[in-house]
Amino acid sequence: MTTPNAPALGLPTGNAGDLAHADLVGRLAREITGQGQAGSAPFQPQLPQTPQVPQGLETLPTGSGQPALPGANLGTPSLPSGALPSGFQPDLSAQAARSFGAPPVGLPGLTGPSHANPVGATPAPASANLFDVAAIPSVHPFTNSNRLPEFFVPSLPDVAAAIPGGPDLHRQTAADHPRANGFAHALAPHLVPRDPGKPGGDAAQEHFSRTGQLPHPSVPAPDNTGDYYFLSPAPPPARGKKAAAQPRVEPSRHAGPAPRVTSHGSVPAGAPFDVEHVRKDFPALHQSVNGHRLVWLDNAATTHKPQSVIDATSEFYGRHNSNIHRAAHTLAARSTDLFEGGREKTRRFLNAPSKDDIVFLRGTTEAINLVANSYGRANIGPGDEIIVSTIEHHANIVPWQLLAQATGATIRVIPVNDRGEIIFEQYAALLSGRTKIVSVTHVANALGTVNPIREIIALAHAYGVPVLVDAAQSTPHIPIDVQALDADFLVFSGHKVFGPTGIGALYGKRHLLEAMPPWQGGGHMIEDVTFAKTVYKGAPEKFEAGTPDIAGAVGLGAALDYLESVGLPAIAAYEHDLLEYAQEGLADVKGLRLIGTALNKASVMSFTVDGLTNEAVAHHLDSLGIAVRSGHHCALPALRRFGVDQSVRASLAFYNTREDVDLFLRGLHTLPRH
Questions:
Q1: Are residue 603 and residue 480 in the same domain, yes or no?
Q2: Against a cut of 0.90, is the pTM above it?
Q3: Which residues are catalytic?
Q4: pLDDT tens figures, 531-555
């Protein structure tokens, strides 16, 4: 197993074939990110219709204000006549040797993007519509005096019905939170008008009223200004000017209204964000530490829990405690319903096709280990390559290193620039017929960088390569839709999304989970056992040996309910404003160096202060009741890219306030200097 060091991470150097391949994928990378000059050097010979050449890129939707993607002629480099040089294309024989439990080359369904099928996913059936949520059943048949099931799991309309505002909410929004209203309009223009005083006046709404569908991306959309850069890549800013990115929503797998607003069953995205109301739901925030009120800025490590999560977990142990699935008594039925209700809520939160695509585990770390040990050992061998990025958490490095050591595979590392952003062209250059999996973070835990995950997946799929997304740091901040992303695997942890510790989830595409062998043995995951042979259940049960964290699954479901009731689009907009406010203040702190200045960034600020150790800075802030984290944040390669082994990290959540930020900045200004 070899892991290249930083100096070896550039574009390939070598024979003409390597250079031609590097040029081809570099051009493709620029086209996918909308920055290319495809027509500048057209390649005359027709390339074979193989998975490494995405077909139908001309129909990929682009964000508002982004240039249209090219047609099928991708502008590959000019070459001498004759056979293509070695290394110009991925090794098809190596691809054919892989087994995904599907056709020999690539993944099933990777037949090329289109408007309804933007990144190669198999379209959902025509009947699949995320606005059809009333059919989600309650999970327990017993009723009480309120005529609701005793252990009721609310459907999305039940949740939405409890939210005040009604049809006039957008008018209040425009007055109280116009930026959030603009964000809401970008998410669902058919639901939220750009000008609340003129319902139905937008071109998008008029198109929807005529056709019943959102406009095709080729139809110019209204220019919604804003700085929601965590959802949309921006063109490079002019020298001396700050980039102004525009909102973007991940596309749906199927035609019809964008799913993200109602898939959360939440406040409409444009609702005014009442942070003081939110704070009342978190008892841990209302305490004193060292004689000061607690300011919790360690959210990237773990988040506090709303009272509803605490109550759900406590009630499980107080009333319903039983093992699940393997008994006929009443408490076992209750526990089973509550546990599987948590799985359904997780499916809904991620917009997964089926709750059977959701595997409960202890968290992100165990989920990545499962994929590495099950999928990896079945599909990765000597000479194969695993791609990760420089800015990964150790949990997305070490399991792949262990696999590489055991199998003879090689780890290839995507470099990052001085802002902490992956260099997309060099990622493209690393992909080849030897690549067997790409595993990357959505949001970097030490830097806050938001990776262009949709484009990363699309390019990997062009090579028939599956992608695992580490969403531990994105799920608390950004709406996630695994079908729109076309993610093959996605993992996250409960304690990052305001749920209990020791619980998390893996999403996997059905055909991948079914083809993967179990990685642990024990009770519940079996159909039959003899001393000669064991027959396993299907996914997800075959990956859930033994008694699971039942209370954790119940608490996770309650946490996701809570996030949906607040609304992740509103959370994202509020946190973005708070992050900008905080980073502007950090610029005035003497000797402070901010590490990670990506244009697309979530709520993390990692920094050092000249002349002071990171531990001394953290201790000083703690004496003022301000909790931050110092250390390497389980991301040593990321920090070492910037010449340090440790940093101080302050991380925000939607229950933080500008007053919290002011206290934090005041604490930094009062650091003892020698």
A1: no
A2: no
A3: 634
A4: 999 998 889 999 999 999 999 999 9
